[in-house]
Design goal:
The protein has three helices and four strands; from the N terminus they run E-H-E-E-H-E-H. The protein has helices at residues 15-25, 57-71, 80-86, and strands at residues 2-10, 29-38, 41-49, 74-79. The longest helix has 15 residues, at 57-71. With 89 residues, it is α+β, with helices and mostly antiparallel strands. Helix 1 runs antiparallel to helix 2. Belongs to the UPF0237 family. Residues 4-78 form the ACT domain.
Length: 89
C-alpha cells in the first residue's frame, strides 16, 4: 500500500528528520519526497510505501500526529488511491 504524506508548518530545524524517523520506526519506505520553504512556511509531500510496515494505517498516522503535535505542524497521511481520486481534474 502506498500513501501520500503532506507536512505544513513554520520552518524549523529537524522537521525532515523527525518525520522520516517516525516513518523509519514504522518500517515505512520513502519512495519520493519534495519539500520547499516559502518565506518561513515549510511544505513537504512524500510518497511512501507502507506495504512492509509493522503498523496498520492508523498506527502510522498516530506516529505522524505525535510528531505534528511536538513540532507544531499539520501532517496528513492519505492512501495514494484516495489522494489521487481527490485531485483528479
Amino acid at each position: 500500500m502506498k500513501a501520500v504524506v503532506t507536512v505544513v508548518g513554520k520552518d524549523t530545524k529537524g522537521i525532515i528528520a523527525k518525520v522520516s524517523g517516525a516513518l523509519y520506526e514504522a518500517n515505512v519506505n520513502i519512495l519520493d519526497i519534495s519539500q520547499t520553504i516559502m518565506q518561513d512556511l515549510f511544505t513537504m509531500i512524500m510518497l511512501v510505501d507502507c506495504g512492509e510496515s509493522k503498523d496498520d494505517f492508523a498506527g502510522i498516522d498516530g506516529r505522524l500526529q505525535a510528531v505534528a503535535e511536538e513540532m507544531g505542524l499539520s501532517i496528513r497521511v492519505q492512501r495514494e488511491e484516495i489522494f489521487s481520486s481527490m485531485h483528479k481534474i
